[in-house]
Amino acid sequence: MNEKYAIISCSGEEFLGGTVTRAIARFLVESLACDRVVLTCLPLFLAEKDDEVEFDRSHRCISIDGCDKRCALNALKINCIEAVYSMVINEDEIKGDYKEFAWKKAMEIKRFMEVESKCNME
Amino acid sequence: MNKFLILPCSGIGKSLGSVAREAAYIVKERTDAIIKCLPRITVGEKEALDLLNKSKIITIDGCPEECALKNVQFSNVEVFRAFRVGKFIRGKKLKPDGILELNEDGKKLAELLAEKIIGEMYE
After folding, report:
1. Rounded distance, CA B43 to CA B25, Å?
2. Is there a contact between A26 and B100 if contact means CB atoms under 8 Å apart?
């Protein structure tokens, strides 16, 4: 299993929650954990299925969903991939600037990765 | 008449994808078109697939992977119009940059693309 995490966010265009998940994924890859995460494009699961699915099978996956439909998590399940961490955004929690909210959620995921790495080392 | 359904790519990894997403939002604001999440189609959600079958579908992709177009085609549904930002930008002296926050050229490109899409919707 590759040491890096594969991040699969729904990035849904229809709801604010989807936009938040996209921001979380970008914050992780651009700032908070750029050397530890790789982004997976969810629609590519179907468009270029084999490459993208194989990639996620060889990485620990973190799903980030913008609503209860949990498309990102379900896309993994459909392909028999288990997420090591899954986050679902509740739009009611988003107060004020959505990017600030996304940053806090990205920090939660960063903390998870740190704790998991520590546990693995022990 | 069937409603227009706009499906942009998610725009998670490239500026051109962000332009596609931004253009979709502009079209939605200025017309009665609706946007649905592309991932709902990717995972085969029934409600989303039913909507595909009764809509005039416009896909907006950022790059040659054409995820939006391919996801619709996998569902065996006809596409009304398919746009690709990477193709649309040709000949325009614009250099879009940024993903979460598009630069001015990116916003300008999204505006131009949205105008073209709206023009073709009602021609």
Report:
1. 23
2. yes
CA distance A70 to A8: 11
Chain A residues touching residue B35 (CB < 8 angstroms): 13-14
* Torsion angle of the four alpha carbons A25, A30, A35, A37, in this order, in degrees rounded to the nearest 10: 10
Tell me which architecture the domain covering A2-114 has in CATH: 3-Layer(aba) Sandwich (3.40)
* Nearest-Cα residue of chain A relative to residue B22: A13
Cα(A37)–Cα(B87) distance, rounded to whole angstroms?
30
The matching CATH number, chosen from 1.10.3470, 3.10.50, 3.90.660, 3.40.50, for B4-121 is 3.40.50
Tracing tokens 């002296």 back to the chain, one arrives at: B93
State both tokens at B102.
Answer: 């598009």
Q: What is the pLDDT of residues A25-54, one digit of tens each?
A: 999 999 999 899 999 888 887 666 677 788
The model carries a pTM of 0.92
A34 touches chain B (CB under 8 A): no
Q: Looking at the complex, report in whole angstroms how far the Cα of residue B66 sits from the nearest Cα belonging to chain A.
A: 8
